[in-house]
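USER: For my understanding, would you kindly supply a protein sequence with its structure tokens?

ASSISTANT:
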Amino acid sequence: MSDNARTTLLIGRISALCLIGLAVAYGVGGASIEYAFSSDPLGPRVVPVALATVLGLLCLFYLRSPGTAEAFPSGRLLWRVLAIPLLLVVCVAIFETVGFAMCIFLLTFGTGLIFGAPLGYAAAGAAGHAALWWFIFSYLLQVYLPTGTLFG
């Protein structure tokens, strides 16, 4: 077996292990949902636990035979691959402070810049995106969206 084939198998198995960890975390989170016994015969735990179980089983199959995978990214592509989840973590961390609309704006703006959009287009698209989702949730669906303690 060539070194390239070993590397792609290793990447596939690392991906499978990461997804198994996600399935376990999702299953534990779903199983810990508390609810009133009389609310529903199955309760809200069934869907997350079932999805976690299916994901776990599929990941075990993928771990056993990962097949071929792309080479691990490097350079600018690696930065782009890591920047999106990092941007998402930052937006979740500041959500209570800046609120829904600003988080959606920052997430869309950052994603646009990561994928090479000009500054003006990224800002305009992010503003439109934030306004659209604010309108949909606040006015059409009547869902309370936090404005954040900064804009409170």
The longest helix spans residues 3-31. The radius of gyration is 20 Å. The chain has two domains: 3-64, 75-140.
